Amino acid sequence: MKGENQVIRVLVSKIGLDGHNRGAYVVAHGLKQAGMEVIYTGIRQTPASVAKAAVQEDVDVIGVSSMVGAHLSIMTKLNQELAKLDASNIPIIIGGIIPDSDYDKLKELGVKLIFRPGSNMDKIINQVKALVEDKEWVPEIKGTLTGDDIDDISLMGSKCDKCSNVFFPSRRRCPICLDEKSITDIRLSDRGTLSTFAICQTAPLGYEIPHVQGYVELNDNGPPVFSLLIRDDEDPPLAVGCSMQLEIIERGTDNDDKKIMGYRFKPLTHT
Amino acid sequence: MRDTYVLGVSMTRFGKHLEKSLSELAYEPIWNAIEESNIDPFDIGTAFVGNAYGGLITGQESVRGQVVLREAGFSNIPIINVENACASGSTAFNLANLAVAAGQTDIALVVGVEKLFCDDTAKSLQALSTSSDLEREGKMGILFAGIYAMRVRSHMEKYGISKEQLAQAAVKNHTHGSLNPHSQYQKQLSIDEILNSRMIVDPITLYMTCPLGDGAAAVLIGTREMAMRMKKRPVKVAASVIGSFGNPGISEHSIAARVSREAYRKAEIGPQDVEIAEVHDAVAAIELYLYEELGFCGPGESGRMIDERETWYDGRLPVNTSGGLTAKGHPAGATGPAQIAEIVWQLRGEAGMRQKKQTPTIGMTENGGGNVGNETAVVAVNILKGDP
């Protein structure tokens, strides 16, 4: 998640024996002129070295330049290396000689944007900005959700190292030990069991009727989580003891145009 | 700490009093309680005024207690405003009791007052919804009827409590209400009328829930000598305990269980010694759960308790002879002192048509308020003992 006034960081890389770096220079220069922080890896990098640099430099976007037709194998390997570093959430864009017939395959491999030689620099800048800013979000309720970007949100709690208890929402200080240093934020399970629920035939302003609320006991022995519950027609009916899964939903945008993200639980449809 | 005694008690009839302000509502209970107490009103040393929603409903956010007591004629003495959601009045009682016990004053006045009707039901409901953490559960649109329904549902599932048993608690409280001239609802309802009334949150129907209401109640607390001078049965405050939300999943007992255990310990009694009780039945169905949490019966036995009419006014342990919040009404800030008044009347044999046949000696009140995290935000328990 990018905070206010934080600069977008982009890694520009060339992987393999491809030495045609003029395009990469142009793009790197253009992004830098637009106020972004650009890290240029130089030529003849490996997928592993690029993944490592991306994580170490905490970049928002990885740019790959490819002029010699190796883009599919490069992307496959780069994905593998990023997964090893638990960094699959970093979006990848690619520029260079890319035949039409490979577009769908690249999209399947997770590539977000593809630019051909001669692409307009302003267009590149705007699309990179949108790509990063689209992933910016704020939680509807403070202390309940965590995630580096919008595709990677989970429930957040706090765990105390002293008493081993887990709390939800997150706490600044353990309410059992009253210690500030012993407590750290953790991700909580996205699965749980419904311990009780209520189908209200009345609702506060702005909520649909019926207004369904419940407590979900999370699978990792976390605390009971209060949540509104949603259910599609084909989902199993709500019952005490039924398995539930987390659903992250968009609840509008804030004044900075960041997406406001909330959570709900719904019956688990597959195991 | 010295022993403290309840002197005079008084309340308005609860209901819709659109034409009356907070201070007009409180005037009569204050002076009726003073007159009954047989004290010199100049001896009242401190006043504690409990009110929860007056700021949001009337706009009088600050100095509500001073405004209320100005109408009643009081000035100069310390006036403490007390807000603790639906337990505001009980909290005022707790503080007043401590003030007398500690010797800060010889006589303390407790006033509980609330106006929830304002010709705009949405505004009233909005005010009530502020008794949750607005930055957290409040942002999820948490509903109090839903909280009660969730608690009732898990209790039903755990012990096989039936909807009919839940409804019986409402039948009982509406019957009690029909015998209480202070009650907002004074009409007996059949089990079918209750079960067939509009569904609010399954399994809770309309006639199982407390209505919006306006009202006031007043209580004076003093010393044993003053209580003796009243020439009525002295009623001692054996325990007054307040507790707050815990950490469900970690805390061993619920807030009601924790606070009541502490009150029993302080009063040196056990739950089996309680002969009459007023409990926080914001929905009648929650009474059964409370019987168990307060130790009136063992886990899972509340269904049998209501089946055998043990908690009716002519039963072993009458609960909510006033009609409870369900029938008598629930003007939040006034509820705690009104519960105290009912128990005092019962211990003095003054409860009229709903009087327990064998005048009880030990009575208790349980009053809850708000919601924070996964628990009631505040619970107050008081235990009163009549002289043998």
Could you walk me through the main structural features you see in this protein, from its secondary elements to its overall organization?
The complex is a heterodimer of chains A (271) and B (388). Chain A is α/β, with parallel strands linked by helices and 271 residues long. Chain A has two domains: 125 residues, 3-Layer(aba) Sandwich (Rossmann fold); 97 residues, no CATH class. Chain A has five helices and 15 strands. In chain A, the strands form three sheets. Chain A has a six-stranded mixed sheet with strand order 6-15-14-11-12-13, with no helix packed on it. A five-stranded parallel sheet of chain A has the order 2-1-3-4-5, with helices on both faces. In chain A, strands 7, 8, 9 and 10 form a four-stranded antiparallel sheet that branches. The model of chain A has no long low-confidence stretch (mean pLDDT 91). Chain B contains 14 helices and eleven strands. In chain B, helix 1 packs across helix 3 and helix 4 crosses helix 14. In chain B, strand 10 and strand 11 form a beta hairpin. At the A-B interface, strand 11, strand 12 and strand 13 of A face helix 6 and strand 5 of B.
Global morphology of chain A = elongated
CATH superfamily of the largest domain in chain B: Thiolase/Chalcone synthase
The end-to-end span of chain A amounts to 30 Å
What is the tally of helical segments of chain A?
5
- Rg for CA atoms of chain A: 22 Å
Encode the helix/strand succession of chain B as letters.
Answer: EHEHHEHEHHHHEEEHEHEHHHHEE
| CATH class annotation of the largest domain in chain A | Alpha Beta
> Percent range for helical residues of chain A?
10-25%
- List low-pLDDT spans of chain A: none
Averaged pLDDT of chain B: 96
Q: Strands across the major sheet of chain A, in which order?
A: 6-15-14-11-12-13
Number of domains of chain B: 2
Oligomer: heterodimer
Structural class of chain B: alpha/beta
Strand content of chain A: 25-35%
